[in-house]
Amino acid sequence: MIGADAISLTVLGSGTCVPSLSRxxxxxxxxxxxxxxxxxxxxxxxxRLVESGLSPGDVTxxxxxxxxxxxxxxxxxxxxxxxxxxxxxxxxxxxLVAGEGFRHFYKALQFLYGKWVELDSGMLNxxxxxxxxxDSIRFDDCCVHTVPACHNPESIAxxxxxxxxxxxxxxxxxxxxxxxxxxxxxxxxxxxxSAFPDAMKVAGHLTPSLAGAIASAAxxxxxxxxxxxxxxxxxxxxMECRKTYNGPLILAKDLMRL
Length: 258
Prior knowledge:
Helices cover about 20% and strands about 25% of the residues. It has about 260 residues and is α/β, with parallel strands linked by helices.
């Protein structure tokens, strides 16, 4: 039997900005008690959500690691779909959480789309988290902690902690980060970007061995690698990660469930 504190996960996207038939842009759905939380909402997220058996109206929280299109592009279609009365209209408020500057980001969507991305009064809550220091916010059945990440000025990583201590970290896009190591200390699962193979390191992103080094330093109980660019298909990602990490390892695939 699944306990009340259990966190279940569905990978809604394990890819990047590069169009792919098998990988949507990086996104994860966490079910935490009564909360259904999406982390990043790039192209393809909405379709994968429906494929997983849910509708926009079922989602209670959206957390955005940074504002690049491959992490935000489905937000406007999501809000638009949430207004449709017959199938997807929401009955619980939606909470949006992101780094500093997100209110301006949302106002820009309103400028572009007007009422089509504006939910009914009382049905939308917006929170901005610090990009300069650790921050936290509490919801009914869990607490979410954030730290600045090494990618964009607004970039943050998230840690979800259930009511009895079950914990999951979502890195978002980042380079090697002491903040991420601290946030991930002994968590049950670290969902970590691993954008490019070791030989193709790009500033602002991790490779499999760097992600493994972070997981080892943080003593995580399980590591999931995700956010794979097509170049990752040409190498043995698991072998590269094993240079620095010997714990339980998962390579993310779209619609994978844990």
